[in-house]
Amino acid sequence: MNSQPSQLELDALVRSVAVNRGKSISLLLGAGASISSGIPSAERCIWEWKQDIFATNNPALRESVGEISLAGTKRRIQDWLDRRGGFPPNFSPSEYSFYAQACFPTSTDRRSYFQNYVRAAVPFIGYQIGRAS
Asked: What is the C-alpha to C-alpha distance for residues 78 and 38, in angstroms, rounded to an integer?
């Protein structure tokens, strides 16, 4: 019985791609490749949407929540959402779909949100390998 490894070390992957030049191969890339290309993580999207909802409801406070990587900013936004009610709790599995639709109610707006990132993205090496052969 010929056993195939389910994972390859990087050097073994490079040799495998080289020896199979011209053949189609499939690679499963994680979110890191997208993030490295300039596409935000799901968590980043959720916080951007929460931030936009907060800022458009509190225009005078927009600058106070300008940096969503800060724990204090996230706490301020989340506290406001929790007080308003009707929003899922922080870390709820439904946050992504809920906030995407709450922030951008039309599918056209949601598509535009992501297209803006895709337009500015520079494909990471993991995405370029397939084009190199």
From this structure: 25
Measure CA of the first residue to CA of the last residue in the chain; give whole Å. 31
**Amino acid identity, residue 67?**
E
Write the single-letter amino acid at 28.
L
Record the pTM.
0.73
Q: In this structure, what DSSP letter does residue 63 have?
A: G
Distances (CA, A) of 39 to 28, 35, 73, 101: 17, 5, 22, 19
The residue-averaged pLDDT of 27-35 equals 71
What are the C-alpha distances in Å from 60 to residues 12, 56, 57, 66? 56, 9, 9, 12
